[in-house]
Amino acid sequence: MSAKLETLENRLRETLGERLARLVAALGEITIETRVADYLETMRLLRDTPELGFDLLVDLCGVDYSAYGGNWTGRRYAAVTHLLSVAHNWRLRVRVFAEADDFPVLPSIVPVWNSANWFEREAFDLFGILFEGHEDLRRILTDYNFVGHPFRKDFPLAGHVEMHYDPELGRVAYRPVSIAPRELAPTVRREAGYGDGGN
Question: Smaller CB count within 10 Å for the chain: N or C?
């Protein structure tokens, strides 16, 4: 581990103390985990402590760990955040697992980084993670009438419903999916005379 990462690890341990549920340093990166109850305060400390100075939220994404590694036994849903300190030129990954798999809820960090707004909406839309305290939590990529959350591992590949134009109604409407699941086998199609010397 580089001296820079050791310095960051020591500062994280000193600043976060008991809020630090887990710290992993691997492949030149540090990932920390925190509990739901400590998540918001942990994020504030990461931003406001001058020795850490994580002033930029780069990304926040939802993750469904249900099929992770083939034998995952931990909690299913998490939010993973990537932070950057411009002043110290270091990065950090923060992971927090929702406590309930059937209704995942996490605190919103929009009060800490306003740029988390759309990222949290995306995680809500695609994974169904509810961010408590988010003032405008609504779908951002799928249609408002979309059924389910398409990035969940148990979401059917064909979806639940499909859109079609209904001439009787004079508008677009939904109906149950009518696509039969099938195995796709690759086929090769070539022009007549392909490979015969080009004559």
Answer: C
